[in-house]
Amino acid sequence: MSESHQRQLLLASENPQQFMDYFSEEFRNDFLELLRRRFGTKRVHNNIVYNEYISHREHIHMNATQWETLTDFTKWLGREGLCKVDETPKGWYIQYIDRDPETIRRQQEQERKKKQDLDDEEKTAKFIEQQVRRGLEGKELEKPVYTELSRENEEEKVTFNLNKGASTSIAASSKTSSVLGPNALKMVEGAVKRKESAHSSGQSKEKKKKSALDEIMELEEEKKRTSRRDYWLQPEIVVKIVTKKLGEKYHKKKAVVKEVIDKYTAVVKMIDSGDKLKLDQTHLETVIPAPGKKVMVLNGGYRGNEGILESINEKRFSATIIIDSGPLKGRRVEDIQYEDISKLA
Question: Region Disordered: start and end of each range (predicted)?
Fold first, then answer.
């Protein structure tokens, strides 16, 4: 039995109710702090959290608290609204509820962006549907009409004239020109020009059709470019700690992400002190450097690409960058949101 455990039992024997309340509060606070820092708002089995909790030497033993079993404690967390809890055939699962105002604000912002992305996808889908419908309607109009061969006189012969019209028309035009003089030649030239202009107008219509298809392709590319994820952490980016729960020592201080765990959690190293912390992404925000410095794109179609910050638009909370890696190197990307890029360490 450890020294801390003996001390807990000794104090509890002197004033059982008072120290049971004290140990219950300590156990609850330490357990929730571990759940928050280690797992964030992810759903996790209560035994996983408890086993990690009791692995620390100075932990409060559950037999010194008001809860007899871990199941009782889990149900209590649910009734008090501290966690979302649900029972499955594999046991009880818990999910921390983060009521920090800054976290709630960021979650609402993420929901707003997700809704906006869905609206953009619906608009793109409708536009593509309209273009396809117009294309089909155009094809129906151009569809040839086939008629049955018929002749009024049974004795009349049916003949097919292949490539004869051109030579006949040329011969006829030469005859006419010799009879009527230069005026006839001008008339023929005018007819040829009208035919050529009609042909060129047909080509312009074809170009219009192609441009509509190109527009669809561009929209699809834009859709891919603006595709977003609800996670953004990347190794070797500089971030700022925004949670106040760690005290003034870390609040608003900068750190470098050294490791990303399960997409949403980062092991960061403080720039000033060298301390290492494990934090959820909701407790961090991106850092925008001065123009000319290197950044990493964290969301959207350019996610994972490095770039050079060209300029900042403070009114729109956005920036313009030049992609500096990969096949898109040299591409200029405008109006990229602050939260989608961060300074590289």
Answer: 191-213
Dihedral-angle region of residue 275 (phi above 0 means left; psi in -120 to 50 means alpha; beta otherwise) = beta
Phi, psi of 219 (to 5 degrees): -65, -40
pTM: 0.41
Residue 172 CB neighbour total at 10 angstroms: 11
Q: What share of the chain is helix, strand, coil (3-state, %, to 5)?
A: 50, 20, 30
Give the pLDDT confidence score for residue 260 in this predicted structure: 92
How far, in Å, CA of 291 to CA of 285, rounded?
A: 19
Question: Which alpha helices (DSSP H) does the chain contain, by range?
Answer: 3-14, 16-39, 46-54, 70-79, 101-141, 164-180, 182-225
Question: Phi and psi dihedrals of 145, rounded to 5?
Answer: -105, 125
Q: Are the C-beta atoms of 295 and 308 separated by less than 8 Å? A: yes
Spatial distance between the Cα atoms of 69 and 56, rounded to a whole number of angstroms: 19
DSSP 8-state symbol, 157: P
59 and 15 in contact (C-beta within 8 Å)?
no
| Beta carbons of 261 and 240 less than 8 angstroms apart | no
34, 52 contact by CB (below 8 A): yes
pLDDT at res. 117 = 72
Rounded Cα distance, 264 and 136, in Å: 46
Distance CA 233, CA 235 (A): 7
At residue 173, the pLDDT reads 47
Burial class of residue 115 in the structure, from the number of CB atoms within 10 Å of its CB (0-12 exposed, 13-18 middle, 19+ buried): exposed
Q: Is it the case that residue 55 has pLDDT exceeding 80?
A: yes
Alpha carbon separation from 298 to 18, 84, 114, 223, 262 (Å, rounded): 50, 30, 16, 16, 16
